[in-house]
Amino acid sequence: MHTTPRPPNTPPTPSTPPAKHRLRSDEVYAQLKRDVAQFALVPGDRFTENEICDRLGVSRTPVRQALVRLQQEGYVEVLFRSGWRVLPFDFARFEQLYDLRMVLETTAAHRLCDEGVRSPNPIHYAALDDLMGLWLVPVEQRSTDTAQVSQWDEVFHCTLVEAAGNPEMARVHRDVTERIRIIRRLDFTRQARIDATYEEHGKILNAIRARRGDQAAMLLRAHIETSQAEVRKITLHQVHMARKGAVG
């Protein structure tokens, strides 16, 4: 049987493109992370790779790749010959990340106010104007969509740090934001916290626009500390209710 020779230096075509594996792995990773965030997988739960494969309808390779990523991020651990386990929330680690976030954001507030005194930057002010247009609105125009407000909240804090003009500081802050997102979103599951966020963001923006760095930093610190305490309380409650429901 005659076959056409492969041109020289042409690599063989793989049976399954690596990009397809990566795409499936990313999808499984995102789904399992949502399961943890929404307490479908509760800290202490044990499961096998085959169970995940059957539930999500995927092969074992992307499941293993996704679980390794989650293991590196501290969400799950592998058990010797007995599958995987969801790790308890490491509140000490989250508190360290919140401390770092607070340092970055209060520093950014001071830089924005100080730079405004030295040489006003139109780009910075344009970013702040966009935030003011989003957060300084009448009560009846405020969003009640928890997912939307959670996303806008991230944009608010990331924009403040980015506008401070230090790309490395902004990069570290984005990394912190990604790592605390899994519990931070819980702060917007109650309308009272959404209303408080609108009020507090507005005060912070007004202080920055007035170039009152100390006041802006103080307001940011109080805002982050309150959010941190609420998130911890809600997380503990949600874990308790999820476990209670599983037992029931």
- Average of the residue pLDDT scores: 85
Q: What's the total count of β strands?
A: 3
In the sheet with the most strands, the strands line up as 1-3-2
Radius of gyration: 23 Å
CATH class of the largest domain: Mainly Alpha
Largest sheet: 3 strands, antiparallel
List the total number of helices.
9
Our estimate of the beta-strand percent is under 5%
Terminal-residue CA separation: 66 Å
The CATH homologous superfamily name of the largest domain equals GntR ligand-binding domain-like
Structure, described:
There is one protein chain. A three-stranded antiparallel sheet has the order 1-3-2. It has two domains: 19-86, Arc Repressor Mutant, subunit A (Orthogonal Bundle); 91-247, Up-down Bundle (Four Helix Bundle (Hemerythrin (Met), subunit A)), CATH 1.20.120. α8 (191-209) packs antiparallel against α9 (213-247). The protein is built from nine helices and three strands; from the N terminus they run αβααββαααααα. Mean pLDDT is 85; it is low at 1-8, 10-17 and 116-120. The protein is mainly alpha-helical and 248 residues long.
